[in-house]
Amino acid sequence: LLFISFFWASFHSLSSPSLGIWPAEGFYVPDPCELTFANTLLLSNAAVSLGGAFISLEISSSFWVLFSLFSFILAWTFMSLQIKEFRIMGLSINDSVYSSVFFFLTGLHFFHLVVGLFLLSLLFWSCCFST
């Protein structure tokens, strides 16, 4: 419900004529064929490889470590490129309601990725030091 409410706020603000035009003048919109497409491929491949790790665990294969490590590397690369993309955009959280909602939604997604990377790190740590 949290995501739905913020997507609702975003769409409501976009359809409201009193708040001006989005995107604002001077806003850099990145080319979808460059960094955005690479981020989409990275994140979707990380999800597929993590699914492969779960399947490897179910069939008691030792490839789950390889799949999990590959997912970790892809997710880390995604987060690095996402930070680079945010710096290129030049958007500030206090510019408008659009930027506030944008940063809140992407911040929630970023937090979700950080928690996932932390859990994968704990998994690797426990595997390396298990007796």
Can you tell me about this structure?
- By secondary structure, the protein is an all-alpha fold.
- Helix content is 76%, strand content 0%.
- It contains four helices and no strands.
- Helix 1 packs antiparallel against helix 4 and helix 2 runs antiparallel to helix 3.
- It is elongated, with a radius of gyration of 19 Å.
- It is found in: Membrane.
- Pfam families: COX3 (PF00510).
- GO terms for molecular function: cytochrome-c oxidase activity.
- Belongs to the cytochrome c oxidase subunit 3 family.
Q: If helices are DSSP runs of H or I spanning 4 or more residues, what is the number of helices?
A: 4
Q: Please give the CATH architecture.
A: Up-down Bundle
Using only CA atoms, what is the Rg? 19 Å
Q: Helix/strand/pairing class, anyone?
A: mainly alpha
- Number of DSSP E strands: 0
Report the top-level CATH class.
Answer: Mainly Alpha
CATH superfamily: Cytochrome c oxidase, subunit III, four-helix bundle
Mean pLDDT, as a whole number?
A: 80
Number of domains: 1
Unreliable stretches: none
Residues in helix, %: over 70%
Amino- and carboxy-terminal Cα gap = 42 Å
CATH topology: Four Helix Bundle (Hemerythrin (Met), subunit A)
Task: Give the overall silhouette.
Answer: elongated
Percentage of β-strand residues: under 5%
GO molecular function, one term: cytochrome-c oxidase activity
Organism: Karlodinium veneficum (Dinoflagellate)
Membrane topology: Multi-pass membrane protein
GO cellular component, one term: membrane
